[in-house]
Amino acid sequence: MSDEETPMRYQEDGNVHMDFHGAVNTTINFIVARYGIEALHEIFRRVGTDVYQDLRRHLNAGDSHELVKHWRHFFTREGADYEISVGDDEIVLTVRRCAAWFHVQKIHGTVSAQFCDQTSIVNTALAEGTPFRIDTIIDGPGACRQVIRRRS
User: Fold this and answer.
1) 0.85 cut: is pTM over it?
2) How far is CA 126 from CA 50, 119, 129, 148, in A?
3) In whole angstroms, what is the distance from residue 28 CA to residue 121 CA?
4) How many Å apart are CA 120 and CA 145, to the nearest integer?
5) 19-45: pLDDT as tens digits
């Protein structure tokens, strides 16, 4: 069975409920106001280590392909404008228009200042202790690059 045929653990395929991202935005603001940014960041770290433990298992084994499949599945599913470039030394996910970010802006008017922290911190937690690092570069509102490289 090839990588493309291997079933992916995180592959919901029911209706896309983009309003989920609006609820996340509201929750982020609540947690920061009530408990502080460190509490929020700890939650995001736990998502990266606990919720996505299967992706971490693959990264620990030296396999970044499962994370690429995960990205491809969810960004396509939500209608993002993105591309993934797989090179010899790095994998780059370029998100030109994050569907989640722009949906939140549409339904709430403003996007939490910490909304993209979920991506940055989850990525860091996913890669922690693995042969990879994941750098997240925010390029502007609803746009980023996520780069996977082997640690030296």
Assistant:
1) yes
2) 9, 10, 9, 11
3) 13
4) 10
5) 888 899 999 999 999 999 999 999 999
